[in-house]
Write a sequence for this structure.
């Protein structure tokens, strides 16, 4: 137990050091702009199809379930409002982040892990390049910028999915009523936390993915372990941080 | 061969957990000299090379590179010194995401990056990269990804990347490991050629005694464009190659090839090629 704790604390310390260096590099030269744009393309544009699909079906499922529950209380007209709040505040950011973690934290861990075990990271250092500056910071910037955008896309397509279920499919609400109740239900703080969360999740995903990649040891088996650990850790941290952000917003707005 | 050592280890020690990777290691190497390092797997040879440019940090002792103590230097402060050193990793260490040309180009672009001041334009850089790839006889691979190359070709591209900026010190980690004898001799011919064309200093980790023999017995003749035997004990190039044998992180032998051949130590004799 003591040795497990010692190992965990040691790893956490390494993680904090890596994070510190990644953030410090934001204001230090050189800046690898091409790498940032490349990562934005891989992480952002590359994730659009999966985000579109899951966002659409999440909205549809929410509308199906809510329609039945709200009908019990004669409140079917509120389906747009409830779907909008649930999607924008919670499900959109969290589901999108978990999907991106599955796709990109694993990708970062396996790519950097492979580079580590084939001595490419040592080669980079020997060629007078800081691997954190070259590999971690561009991924950090790209994920933190792209995840809020992906979440906004997911929320929008989710609302559209819920609309298709509520109006053309179930006929429980008119089109104009659906969109007006959805729009009116959203407060500034809903949108704020709907964008702050993915920004924070983006940082978590990039740092955890890169951390497990850079720490990889033990050949190709080690790369597999690093990939799994990155996805599991990132997913857990996303849920835990959601709770913390929710608690802060609940305390701020007392609703 | 006079003057300050280019690289000097003084009582260098390093441990991984409970295992000594380097133990009280002391030696120095001057301009134009070659050290060929032998030792069984896990004897600390690769760690020694990595410590030479600060890729691993010592637990005790000091290392001087180009006359500067690098033992307690920050990573970023080591970059200027690493820029003057070429490092060939065991498997080449080529970047998979870049083409062969981009890999060889990398050190040139990187050396210009810190102040953003470009001393050479794109055409000059490409010409230099192609010239270096020609040196290792692989110009035709310029646009290929490293994954399309054989092990020996990757090693040769690794050499091209290491020498493209013409660094005064070159570190080779097992340049011939796992290669067939013909390819291995081709690689060593390139290493000797690089040494003789640019009078560079070389530190070579290897398992093959023949690699040391090539470095000790041959020189590159630019007119014939091939390696020729060094004839006569009086040749000034004769004594520039020395041999080191490592065991459990310690240097157990350092001397010339003749001294190594005459050694009575059973461990040292393991690395000598015995005539049939």
């Amino acid at each position: 137990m003591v040795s497990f704790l010692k190992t965990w604390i040691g790893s956490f310390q390494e993680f904090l050091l890596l994070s510190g260096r990644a953030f410090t590099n934001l204001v230090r030269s050189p800046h690898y702009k091409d790498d940032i744009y490349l990562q934005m393309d891989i992480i952002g544009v590359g994730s659009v199809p999966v985000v579109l699909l899951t966002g659409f079906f999440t909205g549809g499922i929410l509308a199906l379930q809510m329609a039945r529950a709200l009908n019990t209380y004669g409140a079917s007209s509120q389906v747009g409002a409830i779907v909008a709040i649930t999607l924008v505040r919670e499900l959109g950011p969290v589901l999108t982040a978990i999907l991106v973690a599955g796709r990109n934290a694993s990708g970062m861990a396996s790519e950097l892990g492979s580079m580590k075990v084939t001595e490419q990271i040592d080669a980079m250092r020997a060629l007078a390049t800081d691997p954190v500056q070259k590999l971690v910071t561009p991924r950090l910037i790209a994920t933190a910028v792209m995840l809020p955008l992906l979440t906004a896309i997911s929320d929008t397509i989710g609302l559209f999915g819920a609309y298709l279920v509520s109006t053309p499919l179930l006929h429980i609400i008119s089109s104009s009523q659906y969109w007006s109740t959805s729009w009116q239900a959203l407060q500034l703080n809903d949108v704020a936390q709907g964008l702050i969360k993915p920004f924070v999740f983006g940082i978590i995903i990039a740092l955890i993915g890169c951390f497990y990649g850079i720490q990889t040891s033990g050949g190709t088996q080690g790369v597999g372990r690093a990939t799994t650990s990155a996805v599991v850790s990132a997913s857990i941290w996303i849920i835990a941080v959601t709770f913390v952000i929710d608690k802060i917003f609940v305390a701020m707005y007392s609703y | 061969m006079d003057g300050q050592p280019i690289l000097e280890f003084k009582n260098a020690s390093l441990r991984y957990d409970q295992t000594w990777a380097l133990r009280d290691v002391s030696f120095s190497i001057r301009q134009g000299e070659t050290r060929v390092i032998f030792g069984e797997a896990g004897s600390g040879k690769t760690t020694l090379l990595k410590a030479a440019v600060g890729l691993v940090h010592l637990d005790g002792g000091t290392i001087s590179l180009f006359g500067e103590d690098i033992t307690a230097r920050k990573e970023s402060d080591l970059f200027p010194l690493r820029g003057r050193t070429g490092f060939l990793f065991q498997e080449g260490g080529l970047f998979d995401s870049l083409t062969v040309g981009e890999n060889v180009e990398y050190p040139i672009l990187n050396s210009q990056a810190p102040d953003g001041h470009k001393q050479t334009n794109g055409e000059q850089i490409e010409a230099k990269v192609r010239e270096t790839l020609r040196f290792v006889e692989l110009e035709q691979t310029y646009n290929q990804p490293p994954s399309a190359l054989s092990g020996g070709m990757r090693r040769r591209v690794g050499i091209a990347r290491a020498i493209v900026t013409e660094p005064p010190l070159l570190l080779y980690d097992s340049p011939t490991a796992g290669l067939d004898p013909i390819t291995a001799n081709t690689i060593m011919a390139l290493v000797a050629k690089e040494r003789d064309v640019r009078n560079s200093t070389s530190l070579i980790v290897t398992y093959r005694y023949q690699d040391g023999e090539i470095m000790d017995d041959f020189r590159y003749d630019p007119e014939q464009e091939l390696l020729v035997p060094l004839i006569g004990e009086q040749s000034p190039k004769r004594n520039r190659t020395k041999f080191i044998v490592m065991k459990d992180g310690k240097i157990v032998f350092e001397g010339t090839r003749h001294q190594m051949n005459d050694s009575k130590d059973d461990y040292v004799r393991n690395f000598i090629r015995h005539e049939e």
In short: Chain A has one domain: 33-253.
